[in-house]
Specification:
single chain, Tumour Suppressor Smad4, 2 domains, six-stranded antiparallel beta sheet
Length: 247
């Protein structure tokens, strides 16, 4: 099952399951995802399901359809893609990708982490791998996290690099590098949040679950919440610390 999470300026507006062969997006009430805004065409875009794949197609809209800031006509969606329609955002969440990532990181499933564009890399790691890293080096056995983290923290886009260190639970002490545009944290069906990496810094947003994540003892609410160095995040029963590279 996959779904689109509709937001505007970080505020959650709704979730839409993709449970048919096609899900339409547009201003007209007949659309599955109706966005009543003049910047959105009457029939703006559609998500088509072909087997296990999901394709986004722009329907010759006036203002275009964008994926992560780039205009698209037809695009194979992957977990974490951000669709932009006018000023609105639609986050594509593929629960099968989350499940596959959890299976590959069995000893880490109660804390986090599903990384967009990294699921394949995770599934190629040995079952008894001593550590989990976002981008394993090309070696027979993954190196310990403290050795590989400096290599992973070298983005080519000039954006800041962040880290999450697990403080509680069976994975306490594990460290993860936040060098992707979007990182999904949590446990599906319990509590899920995303950390987005932007030029302005890192922001955490609630995605799934009855309760919002807690930062430094206070709920973040429905808006995107800016993270500062050494903030303590509580999510799905696990505490973790956020900090930026070099701090």
């Amino acid at each position: 099952m996959a779904k689109l999470i509709l937001t505007l300026d970080g505020a959650l507006l709704g979730e839409h399951d993709i449970d048919n062969d096609a899900l339409t997006i547009g201003r007209r009430p007949s659309n599955d995802v109706q966005i009543d805004n003049l910047a959105v065409s009457g029939n703006h875009a559609v998500v088509r399901v072909l087997g296990s794949d999901y394709f986004l197609e722009d329907l010759n809209s006036t203002n275009g359809t964008y994926i992560d800031g780039k205009p698209v006509k037809k695009h194979l969606l992957k977990h974490g893609d951000l669709i932009e329609v006018g000023k609105y955002q639609l986050r594509f969440v593929d629960e099968s990708a989350i499940a596959a990532g959890n299976a590959a990181e069995e000893d880490f499933e109660k804390t986090m982490i599903i990384r967009p564009a990294a699921v394949q890399a995770m599934t190629q790691q040995p079952e008894a791998a001593p550590a989990v890293t976002p981008e394993p080096p090309p070696a027979p056995q993954p190196a310990p996290i403290h050795e590989t983290a400096p290599q992973a923290a070298k983005p080519q886009d000039g954006l800041p690099v962040g880290h999450i260190q697990v403080l509680t639970g069976p994975s306490a002490g594990r460290e993860l590098v936040l060098n992707k545009s979007l990182t999904t944290l949590g446990k599906p069906g319990v509590q899920v949040a995303v950390i987005s990496r932007r030029p302005q810094g890192f922001f955490i947003t609630h995605v799934e679950g009855a309760n919002q994540p807690v930062v430094n003892g206070a709920s973040i609410g429905v808006q995107a919440h800016a993270l500062n160095d050494h903030d303590v995040i509580e999510l799905a029963g696990v505490k973790m610390e956020f900090f930026q590279a070099g701090n």
